[in-house]
Amino acid sequence: MASWFRRQRPRVEAPTLTPRDTAAAALKVDLGELAPAPDVFLGHCAALHLVFIEQLTTAMTNAPRVADKDALARVSGVVLTRYLALSTEIERMQLDRSDVMQPHLEGVEEFERRTRGGEWHEQVASAHVTIGFLTDFWVQLAAGLPGDLRGRVTEALTLGDLQNPVHRVIERAIATNPKLSSRLALWCRRLVGDTMLQARSALVMHDDPLRDEEQIEPVFTELISEHTRRMDRLGLTA
Amino acid sequence: MASWFRRQRPRVEAPTLTPRDTAAAALKVDLGELAPAPDVFLGHCAALHLVFIEQLTTAMTNAPRVADKDALARVSGVVLTRYLALSTEIERMQLDRSDVMQPHLEGVEEFERRTRGGEWHEQVASAHVTIGFLTDFWVQLAAGLPGDLRGRVTEALTLGDLQNPVHRVIERAIATNPKLSSRLALWCRRLVGDTMLQARSALVMHDDPLRDEEQIEPVFTELISEHTRRMDRLGLTA
Q: DSSP readout, B162-199?
């Protein structure tokens, strides 16, 4: 796969600090090297979770059926649980929540505006695609956190079940109105670029851009594959 | 106090089933007589809680500061907890959530639209006034539920702390911009009529409208007093 962000740059073999004997090992270690310091990690990730809550509740507000509203309210509660767990880590470091989150607010809100759908099907698809992709991304990035924090943050980011209930809401919508499929497939494809840019904005680049790209590329390839599997489950072309 | 809904109707002394020796006793028993059947009670009240979540999250989405977003996200989680507890009661009666809630959706969403503020200060004030008033109201109305359900619903409706955090958000906003006070006072006053109509829509009226009014009046007087205390605490004229 070509680099997702610098398609024109020629690819070269750059030295890496980590052995590449398995894809999984390479992935975790490589992205971890680009992780920001814990306070920046937690501030950005927590601010992003507030946006996830906003995305889900926007879809919930506009959904016409109680069953969908109910599902989206519960899922928004799952995100809140993750947010509260991240908040706890911020407090454990004796940092002020607002101080660490505020610098990231403009970026994540701009991302939310760019990916907000016009009607509720698009809104719930936006939540599904962006939360799915970015959660996978931040779990990978957590590999760069020190010691115990890494485990606790990974746990925070994966608390509860979010993907399956949102999947079922979209599945029901498509079953009710099969014509939605092609529109939602295009919509979801449109979201991937902004979502990848939002992910990338969390990375701390080093002096050697070529080496950075070498580290980023396999991770984004895997994240895109996961996105494709998410779309496949809905019968949507990624 | 004059009747809040039929101000033109002459007041007469109508017989009541309950002793009126204390205001509190009269209140609880009287409104309980106008309570709907448990399935209608739970369906309406749960649908209303979805609207509360929407109100709080709208304010959260538009609040510019992380501290306010954080507070509103947590409070929205409190409402979700109450909603889930009401849902549990619906399931305990072996009823379908969607079936009992859907008939009330149009009414509560129309109420939400009528009371939605144009910017985030108004939105959070709307949430404060309407959730405060209607929670007090539904707690009173729960007196009409049978046996154990009454206690469990009253507990569900009062889980967690909602009023104080929302109060503090508005207090901070006014402290930052004292000019807000007079505008918010007017805005909150404007909300009371729609909020009382929403409350009243839950009551089951009997054959004798005069007697119904006699029963409703003292309860609404008390709810209005509570509303006035809520405004006083913010330094706003009710």
A: -HHHHHHHHHHHHHH-TTHHHHHHHHHHHHHHHHHHHH
Pick the residue of B42, B55, B57 with the most A CBs within 10 A to test the interface with A by mutation: B57
List chain A residues with CB under 8 Å of B73: 50, 53, 80, 83
Task: Choose among A60, A73, A97: nearest Cβ to B70.
Answer: A97
The domain containing residue A156 runs over which residues? 23-233
pLDDT tens for residues B52-95? 999 999 999 999 999 999 999 999 999 999 999 999 999 999 99
Within-domain flag for A8: no
Considering all CA atoms of chain B, what is the largest pairwise distance in Å, rounded to the nearest integer?
55
Residue A13 belongs to some domain of the structure: no
pTM for the whole structure: 0.86
Q: Which residue in this structure is represented by tokens 């106008």?
A: B34
- What are the CA-CA distances from residue A132 to residues A124, A144, A160, A196 (Å)? 12, 20, 13, 12
The tally of CA atoms less than 13 A away on the side-chain side of residue A195 is 27
Identify the CA nearest to A223 among candidates A130, A137, A126, A128.
A137
Q: Are A191 and A231 contacting, i.e. CB atoms less than 8 angstroms apart?
A: no
Tokens of A65: 């059926």
Q: What CATH number is given to the structural domain containing A160?
A: 1.20.1260.10
Distances (CA, A) of B34 to A235, B15, B38, B144, B213: 50, 15, 12, 7, 11
* Token output for A15: 């030295």
Contact A70, B84 (CB under 8 A): no
Give ipTM to 2 decimals: 0.85
Domain count, chain A: 1
Domain annotation covers residue B196: yes
> Does some domain include residue B15?
no
A-B contacts (CB, under 8 Å): 78
